[in-house]
Every structure is written in structure tokens, then in C-alpha cells.
Automatic annotation (TrEMBL):
Pfam families: Lectin_C
Transmembrane found in the keyword field: yes
This protein's record includes keyword S-adenosyl-L-methionine: no
Residues annotated as domain C-type lectin: 20-143
Name this protein carries in UniProt: C-type lectin domain-containing protein
Transmembrane segment boundaries: 6-25
Entry superkingdom: Eukaryota
Keyword terms, alphabetized: Membrane, Transmembrane, Transmembrane helix
InterPro entries: C-type_lectin-like, C-type_lectin-like/link_sf, C-type_lectin/snaclec_domain, CTDL_fold
Length: 146
């Protein structure tokens, strides 16, 4: 009985840890510059989304609406200077998938593209990333920790 009780307690603990580590994704229907988008995510949810794998990237894209004329969403990866590495907010990870960037991206056009959008349009660039000026307005993708 002691072994079964210990197993039960351990199982309950692991279940609680799983719940604690869960999160949900959200997006705004209002376009914002990158800084305002992050502030929106932080005040309304937990923060801007931090993508940790290609599977997560694909899942998020599958849930976002393809908005006619503007199928672009801000994600939580940025840099401060053209020579800096791309870094995810919150965890400072530098994970970049092999297939993450759209063709010929990041290109840092005009040396001022320090934020990243994700495409949700149909076609070869669906789910791909593009470096973009942080002042441009896109829809933010946020997450909420449970």
C-alpha cells in the first residue's frame, strides 16, 4: 500500500507539473508596432509568443487567421543591432529553425529590420519568418501561461 500511495502522490505531482507548464496562444485583431504589440501581450496575457520548435511554429500558423491583405503577425524574436544575433524575448534563446526564414530572409533591408513577423498566407512562405521594421504595424501573437 505504501508503494501504491507513493506512486499515486508522484503521479498527482507530475500531473500538476504538466498543468503548470501549459499555455495557450492568442492574437489581437488590431495591428500594432512591435513594442506596443509586446506591451499588449504582457498586459493582456503573459508575453509575446516564443517559438521553441518547428512543430510549435507550424501549430501556431495553423491556428492564426489568414487576414486578407495583411497575413502577417509579430512574434517574440528581435535584436538591437544589425550585428546582434536574433534572440527570443523572455528566455534569451537563439533557436532558429533550419526552415524558419522565408527565401532571401533575413535581409535587413535598409539596416533597420530588427523585429520578426510570421507569414500565415498560403503558398511557399506560409509559416516562414521575415525581418521587418519594428515600427510597422502587424497583429501580435501572444501566449498565456497557465
Amino acid at each position: 500500500i505504501v508503494l501504491n500511495l507513493n506512486t499515486l502522490i508522484l503521479s498527482m505531482f507530475l500531473f500538476m507539473v504538466e498543468i503548470t507548464l501549459a499555455w495557450t496562444y492568442h492574437y489581437s485583431s488590431v495591428r500594432k508596432n512591435w513594442s506596443d504589440a509586446r506591451l499588449y501581450c504582457q498586459t493582456t496575457f503573459t508575453d509575446m509568443v516564443v517559438i521553441q520548435s518547428q512543430e510549435e511554429n507550424d501549430y501556431i500558423v495553423s491556428k492564426l487567421p489568414n487576414r486578407t491583405g495583411s497575413p502577417y503577425y509579430w512574434i517574440g524574436i528581435t535584436k538591437n543591432h544589425k550585428d546582434d544575433p536574433w534572440t527570443w524575448i523572455g528566455n534569451n534563446s537563439t533557436w532558429i529553425g533550419e526552415k524558419s526564414w522565408a527565401t532571401n530572409e533575413p535581409n535587413n533591408e535598409h539596416s533597420t529590420e530588427f523585429c520578426v513577423e510570421i507569414y500565415v498566407n498560403q503558398g511557399e512562405n506560409r509559416g516562414k519568418w521575415n525581418d521587418e521594421k519594428c515600427s510597422n504595424k502587424k497583429f501580435p501573437v501572444c501566449f498565456k501561461g497557465e
